[in-house]
Amino acid sequence: MTPINVGLLGIGTVGGGTWEVLKRNADEIRRRAGRAIRITQVADKALEKARKLVKGKAKVVADAYAVARSPDVEIVIELIGGTAIAKALVLEAIANGKHVVTANKALLATHGNEIFAAAQKKGVMVAFEGAVGGGIPIIKALREGLSANRIEWIAGIINGTSNFILSEMRDKGLAFDEALRDAQRLGYAEADPTFDVEGVDAAHKLTILSALAFGIPMQYKKAYKEGISKLTKADIAYADALGYRIKLLGITKKCAKGIELRVHPTLVPARRLIANVEGVMNAILVKGDAVGPTLYYGAGAGSQPTASAVVADLVDVTRLITADPEHRVPHLAFQPDQLSKEQVLPIGEVETSYYLRMRVLDRPGVLADITRILAASKISIDAMVQKEPGEGESRVDIVLLTHRALEKNVNRAIARIEKLSSVLGSVTRIRLESLL
After folding, report:
1. What does each C-alpha distance from 372 to 104, 356, 366, 368 come to in angstroms?
2. Which domains does the chain carry?
3. For 22-48, what is each residue's pLDDT tens digit?
4. Is 205 marked active-site?
């Protein structure tokens, strides 16, 4: 059969990895796909760098739109990043009848609904395995491998930078700022790490996973985001002493009132496999009603792991390129006319357990005042740690673990506790999940 001609938009880190994987494993890929897959056109502003990489084996241009419109290209790979230009290019490629492969989680989380609708109308595919979890085949697992299941919840470590920082804080006793500097020095964190450490990147990925799991449209704006920058060495140590690890988790869950969609630091029992995922690695735990909990682990970013996912998408598209559009796997796992209208819950309506740490004056009646406020807000205590004050000290930490409670009730209780004259400063609140 004639080869499939591919246009590559962006030949940076992931684009370069995609080029290398396709070249290195060309024979194996042809055997799997049923025909050769070759990148014939590359668009990149860094023309000389791109030409050195492709060594005359593909046409290199600066105009990405020319590739998106080229009659000689059947599949367009978008690896430019960002949302504005990438969206315009993807829609242009679709309008010209091209199938699209992308690893752009921000693009899909914010504009995926429009892009999938355009692709559906045109009868082309948009594949995006590389958008979540790097080389971990989580998209395929949700769309196909777990299609017999009613997904109950997903909890994932889906940002390697934040996971590395938390690992460093725990293993070396570092403060957040020190661990962040280590991550930047090693190239795991950007000069401006906001997207990683404040949960934005994870929320993009979680939005995609939630849509696939529950058959809902992409709803990134409704995702709750809370990062790790305010975590302290003390909280890491207290969690450890209580038998927990703190991880930045993306959690989406289907419950009676709607769908939870939230990213935040989370206490996880240390005996859970996902609690022991360290460094820049990713792990995603999916609970299905038939299969039970399943764990997907691997490198969540990088040139070769993400290229692995991009090339796998190319193979899938090549296999299905002649199939009737009505009989392809739907973009969001469910048939387009069967998407659910279930609401994403505001964070105040979420129910979970909590870790609460407060600095108080060491005097009689303080704990009684705090427990009275919690009880009035329908919050019961599961465990408590109170450090004995050192000689001459008048201040002490109280750490409480609660049973499950509504977030809005916890917020109300925290506001009242912080008004007590015996409580110094703000109450630290970290959510807790048993992941059973």
Report:
1. 49, 15, 10, 6
2. 4-135+303-338 (3.40.50.720), 138-299 (3.30.360.10), 351-432 (3.30.70.260)
3. 999 999 999 999 999 999 999 999 999
4. yes
